[in-house]
Amino acid sequence: MNKLARFGQQFGLARVICLVLLIGLVALRIWDPPPLEELRLRTFDFFQQVRPRAITQRPVVIVDIDEKSLRELGQWPWPRTLVADLINRLTELGALVVGFDIVFAEPDRMSPGVAATTYRDLDEATREKLRRLPSNDEVLAGAFRRSRVVVGRAGAASASTQPDSEAVNEAGFAVRGPDPLSFLVTFPSLLGNVPALEEAAAGRGVFTIRPERDGIVRRVPLVMVVQDKLVPSLTLEMLRVVTRSEAMLMRTDEAGVRAVAVPGLEIPTDQNGRIWVHFTPHDPNRYVSAVDLLHGRIPAERLAQRLVLIGTSAIGLLDIKTTPIDPVMPGVEIHAQILESVLTKSVLTYPNYAIGAELIAAVVVGLAIIAATPILGAATVFILGGAVGAGLIATSWYWFLAYDLMIDTTFPLLSTVLIYLSLVFVNYFREQQQRQQIRAAFGFYLSPVLVEELAKSPEKLVLGGEERKMTILFSDVRGFTTISEYYKKNPQQLTSLMNRYLTPMTDAIIAHKGTIDKYIGDAIMAFWNAPLDDGNQEINSCEAALAMLSRLKTLNEAFEQEANATGQRYLPFRIGIGINTGQCVVGNMGSDFRFDYSVLGDTVNLASRLEGRSKDYGLPVILGANTAAAAGDRFATLEIDLIQVKGKSEPEAVFTVLGREEVLGSEEFRRVREVNARMLTQFRQQDWRGALETIDVCRKVSDGFGLHDLYDVYVERIADFQKSPPPADWNGVFAYETK
Questions:
Q1: Given this model, what pLDDT does residue 389 score?
Q2: Average pLDDT estimate for 453-468
């Protein structure tokens, strides 16, 4: 220890600390965690934004299934005879090779044979004539054989059993160097095309593009692994077909893949076989509209001797990507830019020696600063360091402009700044002890009133609670699984939809003095009479429930209008609400490290069960007996059943609420309540015939109150009891076995 202390005094404690820091930074670069990689990627993005690739040639043309084509030719998918017309037209105009950024995974449902089976009211002669016609897939396959077509395949995120026609075909690859399989992007399986198209195509390539962690497309794999077999990308396969080669070459070393080649073209890649795309801004001149091509409005010289990609820029077909220089770019244009970069020999390269160069620069500059700062002073070293940093940036920029090389300077600059700052702070403050206090961050779901109360009295932020009478509300979206499944490919739209739903529901609760306890997915839990007293808690909860239904109706009308305007499926939101009043424990619940202001008790459990039972009766709101008794003078409440929910031994009379005072005072509701009460009495007395007759009357007098599903429940129960009668001493309670 004495020798170490003496060394520290002679060499300088700041230098020792910075040497350790430099070693740690080198180790960090070798590890290359995602934040460091993202910083490097952002630097390369900036280079492309300042100087994107110049468009010197246009060897690639995109036949665009655009909005104009969809308007004139109809929605996608088109009949494959129409796609065959596209191929035939491209062949006539002299296209070298045609690649599809589309997969035809299922037989065409518009084929004549399908029509013969599915169309109604056809005479047998017409059906037989339709059966003899070739299928649309056969027509398209014929067009493929007369041209040179590369069909697209999609990489699947999970393993699946594919039909034989979609099995992974091992492409012709020669590998010079170590086995590359462990380095390449892997897909568990592929989604291919129907057999006739796969067999007729001149090539098959994967068009799936995986963005980086931040959602930006920078690198696209040229070769992938599927079921331990090498498969080419769509662009690489197009290059193979156009060069009439039978195989492709991969060059590898111990670090991974270095390049992929077809005759006359060698394409540098990263170690994972991905090409760094050298982007130009979105260029409309790359595109020709599919409908214009079909109608002969495109001159032959526009397509002759060109590589052609067929894809879409239509927003509704969801093939939109983000690139370093464009927030919105059709995926098919990324494939076109890859081909352009390769054919014009302007591919970006991040060579395997780049890491070594970055580490050497960081170590040399770091050691120079460590040695010079105590001698020259912080200000002088700052000026010199700035000059060195500017030189590193200028060198990196020159390599990018002159040689399309990407050499990162962010890490040497970052390490230099960190070492310099460490030297400064250690030299100026090493004799001072730094004490840091870590304050725990707590998240709370509280009403604004409670937030104000706790802000004035922070000592209340302790575990514990108090017992009081409270009203609890649970609400849940009916059929939410169907809604979420519909938006599974667009989770952002589902999130937006849920926010639009939860906001007015929350506003309705808070407007009637409720406190939001929590959101549980699409469910809401709220309560009344805490933290402040609410003498009208039952009335306010019923007002909130009716307000929620009213706002939901308005929201559904807006959803329907938007669905009609965009052509999407209209999925209305329907909710169930359960409300119950009783004794609860309310307070801060949780652990010493995290707790929420929440409520516990049997009353809460029953409110949750009532919400779950609302779907059984086809009613939007179910009230517990205590809530209905307190609100019965202000609302049109109607008893609907006497139940025993799972987990409780005591029966509970349950009610629904049909409206406010104007409904309560109406003659129609008075008649409904009277007839409904008679039906319940007959049912509980096991007078099945009388109950059924009264149910018929109930249906007539309750028209407009939405009670038909309720009476269907009783008809079904009576049918069951007529087959298996309950005991003679049965008290009319219906016991639910599930939650």
A1: 73
A2: 59
Residues with Cβ within 8 Å of residue 738, at least 6 apart in sequence? 646
Residue with tokens 């009670």: 707
Q: How far is CA 655 from CA 107, 181, 496, 521, 717, in A?
A: 54, 66, 34, 26, 18
**Distance of CA 184 to CAs 221, 232, 338, 557, Å?**
8, 11, 18, 50
Answer whether the bond into residue 458 is a cis peptide, omega within 30°.
no
Among the residues of 567-666, which ranges form H helices? 602-617, 625-631, 661-664
β pairing state of 219-221 and 274-276: antiparallel
Q: Do the beta carbons of residue 274 and residue 185 sit within 8 Å?
A: yes
Q: Are 667 and 646 in contact (CB under 8 A)?
A: no
Angle between helical axes of 378-403 and 354-376 (0-180°, round to 10): 160
Q: Is residue 506 a contact partner of residue 445, using CB atoms and an 8 Å limit? A: no
Using an 8 Å Cβ cutoff, are 596 and 518 in contact? yes
- Listed range (120-124, 145-149, 223-227, 651-655) with the worst mean pLDDT: 120-124
pLDDT digits (tens, 9 = 90+) for 20-36: 777 777 777 777 777 87
Residues linked to residue 638 through DSSP beta bridges, in sequence order: 656
Phi, psi of 173 (to 5 degrees): -130, 135
* 585-601 pLDDT, tens digit each: 888 776 655 667 788 88
The rounded mean pLDDT for the chain is 83
Among 238-247, 259-268, 460-469, 728-737, where is mean pLDDT lowest? 460-469
Sole residue written with tokens 């939001």: 516
Q: How many CB atoms lie within 10 A of CB 718?
A: 19
Residues 412, 453: Cα–Cα separation, whole Å: 52
Cross-sheet strand order for the sheet of 256-262: 173-176, 248-253, 256-262, 265-268
Cα separation, 100 vs 615, in Å, equals: 48
Q: What is the dihedral of CA 532, 535, 541, 544, to 10 degrees?
A: -80
Q: CA 157 to CA 136: how far, in whole Å? A: 30
Q: What is the pLDDT of residue 739?
A: 58
| Type of residue numbered 482 | T
Tens digit of pLDDT for each residue in 483-494?
Answer: 888 888 888 888
Q: Which token pair is 193?
A: 């095309």
* 626 DSSP 8-state letter: H
* Pick from 341-350, 550-559, 684-693: least confident: 341-350
Strand ranges, E, within 195-276: 203-206, 219-221, 223-226, 229-232, 248-253, 256-262, 265-268, 274-276
Residue identified by tokens 């009277």 is 674
Question: How many Å apart are CA 37 and CA 355, to the nearest integer?
Answer: 12
Residue 171 predicted with pLDDT over 60: yes
Secondary structure (DSSP) of 322-363: B-SS-SSEEHHHHHHHHHHHHHTT--BB--TTHHHHHHHHHH
Weakest-pLDDT range from 177-181, 353-357, 697-701, 704-708: 353-357
Residues 580 and 474: their CA atoms lie apart, in Å, by: 9
Cis peptide before 412 (omega within 30 of 0): no
Contact of 361 with 392, CB cutoff 8 Å: yes
Q: How many residues does the chain have?
A: 739
> How many angstroms separate the CA atoms of 145 and 407, rounded?
45
Q: Please name the residues in contact with 294: beta carbons below 8 A apart, sequence gap of 6 or more.
A: 73, 82, 85, 86, 89
CATH class label, 448-735: alpha beta
pTM: 0.54
Of 31 and 188, the structure prediction assigns the larger pLDDT to 188
Neighbours of 417 (CB within 10 A): 13
Indicate the residue type of 733: V
Q: Side chain identity at 671, as an amino acid letter?
A: R
Question: Looking at the predicted structure, is the pLDDT value of residue 64 above 60?
Answer: yes
- Model confidence at 7, in pLDDT bands (50, 70, 90)? very low
Q: CA geometry: angle at 330 spanning 325 and 334, to 5°?
A: 65
